[in-house]
Each structure stands twice: as structure tokens, then as C-alpha cells.
Amino acid sequence: MDFNLSEEHIMIRDAARDFAQNELLPGVIERDENQKFPTEQVKKMGELGFLGMMVDPKYGGSGLDAVSYVLAMEEISKIDASASVVMSVNNSLVCWGLETFGSEEQKQKYLVPLAKGEIIGAFCLSEPEAGSDATSQKTTAFEKDDHYLLNGTKNWITNGNNASVYLVIAQTDIDKGHKGINAFIVEKGTPGFEIGPKENKLGIRGSDTHSLMFTDVKVPKENRIGEDGFGFKFAMKTLAGGRIGIASQALGIASGAYELALKYSKERKAFGKEISKHQAIAFKLADMATQIEAARHLCMKAAWDKDQGKNYDLSGAMAKLYAAEMAMDVTVEAVQIHGGYGFVKEYHVERLMRDAKITQIYEGTSEIQKIVISRSVLRD
Ligand code: CAA
Fold first, then answer.
1. Tell me, what's the pLDDT at 193?
2. Ligand 1 probe mutation, 82, 161, 233, 370, most atoms within 8 A of CB
3. Where in this chain does the record put each Acyl-CoA dehydrogenase/oxidase C-terminal domain (predicted)?
């Protein structure tokens, strides 16, 4: 067993770290406050290959492994989790789903510009009444002549307005339950496809989250992904990889907050010495460092499983569960270490604490991860 990173991995991690420091840090507070999408920054991420990291270069991607993806996600999330959720959705949900299950025509038409970062994509599963209970899709897509007619509403869609390509999950045969669900590629601007107002969120405020409305939207038959009835499995398999991305996001949010708290604790003096020299603070830092390291190992294990071609449903769910819970705990402690300064925006930790919360909710709540994990351990 070798815990060392390769030279290539170190290079990718450092490139992501430099990008985050130089391009994402300036303006991150203002983007959060004004809910401003990081348009220029996402464009640069595309140019640097961060939006199609694991996609084969023949489809415009960087051809890297999942370990590289975790490393880059951690570095970018340390500074700007709004930018990293765009990256995570584009890489794990949209590009991976299309590369793994799309037809050659779909790959040429959609995957290539998505992997190059020329456009970004969105993954549309959640509905007003189908969040955790993903089989209860109310959106329908019934066959009619040479197309499907899509009707319904999707909720909480990341990249909702800034995406150009949407992977939409819909019920095509109600009697068949989850076996009557399909996934479709829907282009922005298709008649009948409307984007709802932007959600005003607690965290990841720079990313855009919208509801989407579909009214008699004509989707060409060739835009269905995979065999008829494959949509629910498509969503589950895609989300399994997505959870590695969000676990790494949570890891990055926590390590960003920890690094700030560590630095602050060595500068700030109270009762005649740096606060890091008080055991109350030193023990907090010890706990935070240990939790972060544990989460990093879980993320790396899940990524390694993926790179080895092993099943990563369990390791991905464990990584997401632990990293998300840990990120919430660690960011709260980072604010506490900063005292009153932690409660104001200039010190960044209050934003990281707000951003951490969503990692316990999206791509399956912590409770959903426990369903996946408990089913797996009880089956074994
Ligand atoms: N791989 C392949 N197939 C899978 C699978 C997987 N990982 N997980 C389930 N399936 C299959 C099952 O084998 C089953 O198929 P068969 O009947 O042929 O055996 C079928 O899918 C149904 O599975 P379940 O009976 O387990 O389904 P369930 O209703 O009990 O739900 C669940 C399982 C894990 C709770 C699932 O509903 C789930 O993951 N819910 C959470 C949804 C979610 O994560 N939403 C996030 C939205 S996306 C998002 O947040 C993106 C963003 O914008 C950032």
C-alpha cells in the first residue's frame, strides 16, 4: 500500500491550488454576497481542463483519474465552494453520465463541448415532491411520433440558468415504476422549457440554483440516454460518482476553514499568549486535523475504488456521509476559534460554515447515505 501521491497528482493539486488562490479568492466574498455566478472563473476552469477532468481526451477531456479529481476538488472548494459545485456537477454527473452511457452521436454533440468547458451542464432529478424519494418522479415524457413530449417541474437544479445542456430524468411509463423512467438530453432554449427564478440560498450563493418548467417540450428520440427504462439506474449510477465529488467538496470546505483557524490561532493573543497555546484551542485544532485526515482517506479510497474499476457505491456513500458531517463540525469550530471575527464576512469562515451545510443535503442527504450504507452492510 502506497499513500504517496505521484508527481502528476502533486502537479494537479498545486495547479488547482494556484488557480484557487489567484483566480477564485479575489472577489469570493462579493460573489457570495451578491449571488453572482463566477462566469469568468468557470470559463478559465474550462480552459485549464477542470471541467472535464476524467473524460477521455478524444472527447475533449483531460483524461485524468478520480484521485486527481478529488485533489483538485479539495483545493478549489477550500476557497470557493460555489465554483466547485459547478465543477462537480459538470464532471461527475453530466460528463461522466454522457461518457459512460451516451451514444457516440450524443458524445460528439454534447460531451465534447461540456468536457472542454465551452458550455456547462445540469443534472435534473429532484422535483417538488421527489427529492430523497427519487423513484416518485412526476415529470413525464411520453412518446409521440419521432420525439418525446416532456412535461413537469424540476427543483433545486444546480447550474439551472447557466447550463446549456440538461440531463432530465422523467417517467415514460407510469405503470412500470422505476423501470419506466428514462434520462433525456434537453437543450436550453427548446420551446416550452422555462427557467424559474433563482433560489436565494444560505450557502454556495455564487452558484445558481433554479426550478425548471417543461410544458410540451419536444425532445428528439435520439436524445434518450441508454436503453428504454434505464433512466433510474442511470441516475443512481451517476449519483454514486457524484457523491465522491461532493465528499471532496466537503473535505475542501473543512480544510479551508481549518487552515484559516490554524493561522488565526497563531496570530491572535489572549491572556498573554497566542490562543493556539491554550489547550482549549489546541485540542480543537487536533480534533479538526484528525477529522479532516479521516475524511481525506475516505475520499481517496472511494476515488481509488473508481480508478480500479471496483464498485464505489459504498465507499462513495461513506466518504460523502463522513465528509459532510465533518465539514459542518469543523467549520463551526473554525468560527468559534475566530471568536467575533469569525462572525463577520472578511474572515471567510462564516461563508465556509454556511457552504458546508449543503453538503449534508445535496446528492443525497446524510440520511440517504445511511440508507445506502446500511443496505450494503446488511446485505454482506
Ligand atoms: N447502481 C445501480 N442500480 C441501482 C443503484 C446503483 N447505485 N441504486 C439503486 N439501483 C437500482 C436497484 O438495483 C433497483 O433496481 P432493480 O429493481 O432492478 O433491482 C432500483 O435502482 C431501485 O432501487 P431501490 O429499490 O434501492 O430504490 P429506493 O426507492 O429504495 O431508493 C435511494 C434508493 C438510495 C434512497 C435513492 O432513491 C436515492 O439515492 N435517493 C436520493 C436521490 C438524490 O441523491 N438526489 C440528489 C439530487 S441530484 C443533486 O443534488 C445534484 C445537484 O444539483 C448538486
1. 98
2. 233
3. 231-377
Average pLDDT over residues 6-27: 98
- Residue 203 maps to which CATH number? 2.40.110.10
Pocket of ligand 1 (CB under 6 A): 89, 123, 125-126, 132, 134-135, 158, 178, 232-233, 236-237, 239-240, 313, 362-364, 368, 371-372
Residue type, 373: I
Sign of CA dihedral 287, 20, 163, 90: negative
Q: Which helix (H) or strand (E) holds 177?
A: none
Where in the sequence numbering do the catalytic residues fall? 363
Q: What is the pLDDT of residues 39-98, one digit of tens each?
A: 999 999 999 999 999 999 999 999 999 999 999 999 999 999 999 999 999 999 999 999
Q: Flag whether 1 is in a domain.
A: no
Q: Is residue 369 classed as helix, strand or coil in its secondary structure?
A: helix
| CA-nearest residue, atom 44 of ligand 1 | 364
Shared domain for 145 and 49, answered yes or no, is no
| Domain limits for position 106 | 7-120
End-to-end CA distance of the chain: 25
Does 246 share its domain with 331? yes
Question: What's the pTM?
Answer: 0.97
Q: Which of 209, 236, 237, 320 to mutate to test the pocket of ligand 1 (most atoms within 8 A of CB)?
A: 236
